[in-house]
Structure formats: structure tokens, C-alpha cells
Amino acid sequence: MEFTAQQIAGLINGRVEGNPDAKISTFAKIEEGKAGAISFLANAKYVNYIYETESSVVLIDEAMELDKPVNATLIRVKSAYEAVAKLMQMYESMKPKMKGISDLAFIDPTAKIGEDCYIGPFVAIGPNVTVGNGCVLHPHVTIGKNASVGNNTEIYSNAVIYHDCKVGSNCILHAGCVVGADGFGFAPSEGGYDKIPQIGIVTIEDNVEIGANTCIDRSTMGSTYVRKGVKLDNLVQIAHNTDIGANTVMSSQVGVAGSTKVGEWCMFGGQVGIAGHITIGDRVQLGAQSGVPGSLKSDQSLIGTPPTTLTNYFRSQAVVKRLPDMYRQMNEMQKTICELQKQIEELKK
């Protein structure tokens, strides 16, 4: 499918600089541009590429200034990053959607399947499962008994939804993710550890995306919650009885321990670890590898273990780099003090 620069600008409220009839039919990174492609420039660090790119059209922030002319047609927008995201969403929506049920899928006779769904080979759907309209279940998806999936949700291969769990509408579950495995509950005993049955469920609300091999554990009682609009990267662990607030995002390898409540619009970098039975406020941002042992108030940007402000963290790191020299100086001072003490003792005699 082919569009002109002017047509693209109309879709994203942009302003064309250059040839409004420049045609594009694909996307490309600005450093790998080619004729017929549209690229974007949102970070000033990459500005040099705009003078060299072979892309026909480049989306660029309205406020970004250029030092010299460019060959590509520019479309000025308020935010190039947001504009390209919108265009890519439109591009995805234009792709034909898969429909139909494979003869190799197993669907229990008591399950209810909505209209216009695609159910691939070797999908297994258990008793009393409900699958909404327009869902796409790729090969080898497993949905346990009494579970439910809302409308227009896409579940990729080898994802598993355990019994009784609930997944909302317009969600994306990537390959290998597991919703509803047992929470990590064991009671120490003389003979080892007695398993505590996990009789709760997981509730995933609408517009949630769950990355590959991410695990969300069922609650001991009640439900583990992932609220609307949450985005979880690959290899994230959400423990039992947690409650992840709306529109919160977590990067790869974040771990949230049990019975913790995370607020809305939080952002956690890679490998952040959250202790159990605490509360994280709304709009809390945590830098990569931060460890959180206690509750945090809303509207903070923190990093480190325990988390501190960015200014304090970098000041501390500057001191840490000097610790070997400081240690050596301290030993030298201690030796000097010992020698002075000996001299004083000799004078007293």
C-alpha cells in the first residue's frame, strides 16, 4: 500500500516541508533509510543521519532545528515518536486478520467461542472456557477450565492461562507467558516445606500486554490483579496477591514479591526488585537494578538499593569510586597516628 507525504501528514496533523507527493510504502530506521521508506527523528543524538538518509520522508519534531538542507521530505509534528507509533498502529490494523478454527485444535464441548476468532493447530481449550469475539489464539496455546478471555485479545504460541483466570479485552499475551501458576507459598515444617494451596485466581484487565516468558502467579485467596493498560516486558515475575496499578510499565526481569500493591502510571527499569507486603505509590519511577525493601510515596524518581534520588545516587557512586584510595589513605593515617603515639609515650618517659 502506498501513501503520499501529504496523506501521511493529514493522518497525524503534520506539516510537510518538501515534496508533498513523495510516496512511501514501508518503514525504515533513519540510519538504514531507502527510497519509498518513512523514517523518524525524535532524538537529537541521531540528527546527523537526517542529512544522509535515503528515506523519502522523515517525521521530525516541530521544535527540532536543522543546520543544513536535507534531501528527504520532512513532516513536522509535535512528537515524532508518538506520530510514528500511531502510523505503525494504523499499518498493523490494515493487515488482514486470521480467522477460522484448525481441525487440529481441541475445544471442549462446553467452551464458548466468540465470532470471527482464529484458533490455531494444537490449541487446547478446557471445559467452560469463554473466548470473546475476534480473538487470535496461535498454535499450542492452552486455556484451563473456567477461564475467560475478552474480545479482540491475541495470545501467542505456548502461552498458558490456568484454570479460572480472567483475561480482558484487547490484550496481547506473548509466547511462553504463564498466567495463573501457583504462587510461591510454603510453610516450613519438621519434614521440610508444606505446600500452601493457592486457591485464588489472576485477573488481567483490558488493554494489557504481557511479554514473552513473563509469569503472573495466582493468589493464595482472592485474586492477583493486573489493571487496565499495564505493559509488562519479557521475563517479568509478578507474585501472588499483588495488585499492579493501571498503566504501569515494567522492563525485563522486574520481580514483584507477594501481596505488594503498585500504584498507577509507575515505570520500573530492568531488574528492579520489589519486596513483598509493601505499597508503591502512583507515578513512581525506579531506575534499573533498584531494590525496594519498603513502601514508597507517590511522585518520585529513584534509583539504587535502597532507592534514593538520582542526585544522591550519582554523588554516592562518585564516592564509591574513590573508596580504594580513601581506604589506603586511612591506613596510612592510622600508621602515622600509631607512630606519633609511640613518640609521645617515649617523651613521657
Summarize the structure.
With 349 residues, the protein is α/β, with parallel strands linked by helices. It has three helices and 40 strands. A hairpin with a 2-residue loop joins strand 22 and strand 23 (192-195).
Structure annotation, total helices = 3
Strand percentage lies at 25-35%
Largest sheet: 12 strands, mixed
State the distance separating the first and last CA atoms: 100 Å
> Rough shape?
flat
Topology summary:
Layout: E1 3-4, H1 5-12, E2 15-17, E3 23-24, E4 26-27, E5 37-41, E6 57-61, E7 73-77, H2 80-94, E8 100-101, E9 106-107, E10 112-113, E11 118-119, E12 124-125, E13 130-131, E14 136-137, E15 142-143, E16 148-149, E17 154-155, E18 160-161, E19 166-167, E20 172-173, E21 178-181, E22 186-189, E23 192-195, E24 201-204, E25 209-210, E26 215-217, E27 223-226, E28 231-232, E29 237-238, E30 243-244, E31 249-250, E32 255-256, E33 261-262, E34 267-268, E35 273-274, E36 279-280, E37 285-286, E38 291-292, E39 301-303, E40 308-309, H3 310-348
Parallel strand pairs: 4-5, 5-6, 6-7, 8-11, 9-12, 10-13, 11-14, 12-15, 13-16, 14-17, 15-18, 16-19, 17-20, 18-21, 19-24, 20-25, 21-26, 24-27, 25-28, 26-29, 27-30, 28-31, 29-32, 30-33, 31-34, 32-35, 33-36, 34-37, 35-38, 37-39
Antiparallel strand pairs: 1-3, 2-7, 22-23, 39-40
Could you explain how this protein is built, in words?
With 349 residues, the chain is an alpha/beta fold. A 12-stranded mixed beta sheet has the order 8-11-14-17-20-25-28-31-34-37-39-40. β22 (186-189) and β23 form a beta hairpin. It is flat and about 100 Å long.
